[in-house]
Amino acid sequence: MREIQVNEISKIIKKLSMEASTIANDQLIKKIKESEKIEKSSVGKAVLKQLLENFKISKTDKTPICQDTGFTVVFMEVGQEVSFVGGSLQDAVNKGVSEGYTEGYLRKSIIKDPITNPKNTGNNTPSILHTDIVPGDKVKITLLPKGGGSENMSRIKMMKPADGVEGIKNFVIETVKNAGGNPCPPTVIGVGIGGTFDYVAYLAKKAIMRDFGDRNKDKQIAKYETEWLEEINKFGIGPAGLGGKITSLDLFIEVYPRHIATYPVAVNIQCNANRKKSIVI
Ligand code: SF4
Fold this sequence. Notes:
The protein has 281 residues and is α/β, with parallel strands linked by helices. It folds into 2 domains: 2-21 and 65-146, Dihydrodipicolinate Reductase, domain 2; 149-274, no CATH class. Helix content is 40%, strand content 25%. It has 8 helices and 10 strands. The longest helix is centred in the first third of the chain and has 20 residues, at 42-61. It is globular. The two termini are 15 Å apart. The mean pLDDT is 97. The structure holds iron/sulfur cluster. The site of iron/sulfur cluster has 12 residues, from helix 5. Iron/sulfur cluster is lined by residues 66, 68, 70, 147-150, 183-184, 271-273.
C-alpha cells in the first residue's frame, strides 16, 4: 500500500486553486486563437481577442481570469493501492482551498446556509469532492473552479425512453439556445446521458473536464458530439452573446447504462474561462 500524507494533498490543492483561477490552460488559449480565425463577426472576433488579452494580463499580474472564482469542484481518481494518512482527505482538500483562496486573493463565493442564513463562509469552502476508485497506486487530481453564471444555465431532465436520442438532442440544443449569452460564451457543453438522477449530473460535469477534440471512444456518440456542436454554432449567439458563429468551443458526451424505464439527461455548461488544472501524483 502506498501511503500519502493528507497535508501533501492540501499543498497541491492550494497551488491548483491559485493557478486555475489565474493561468488559463494552454489548450484553451490555442482553441480561442483558432476560433478567432474562424469567427466571421467582427464583434465576435473582437471579444475573442479581448479574452486572449485578458488571459495574458491575468497570468502576468497573477489576477483572476474572472471575478467569479467559482465553487471549487475537485475530481480525484484514486488508485486502490493508495492509503491517505494523517487526517481526513475531505478536510485536507478544504484546507488547500481555504489557503489558496485566501493567499491568492480570490473571491470567496460560498454561503454556509443556502436558505436561512446566507452568510459567506469566508474561505470558499466547503469544496465539492468527487472520488473514483481506480486500479494502481497513483492519484489524479483535477480542480475545476465552477462559475455561477454558467452553472445557472445548466439543466437536467428525466426523459421518457420513448423520447429517444432525438428527444435528448432537442433538450441539449434547446438548453444552450435558451441560455443565450448568460453562460459567458464561447462555452463548453458537457452532456450526461443515463445512470440515475444524481449520477447523470455528475456525468455532465465530468464531461466538461475532457480536452478539446478528445472524442468519445464510441464512434456513434463521437458523431453526436460533433453534430450537436455544429447545430449549436448555427444559432448565431456568438462570443459573449453578441453574435457570431463561435457559441461553443466543444461538446462532450459521457454515458452510463440506464434503467429500462428512465432516460436521464443533464447539460452542464462551462463558460469561456474554462478553468481546470490537473496533476498526477
Ligand atoms: S460564468 Fe464564467 S466567465 Fe461568466 S462570470 Fe461566471 S465565472 Fe466568469
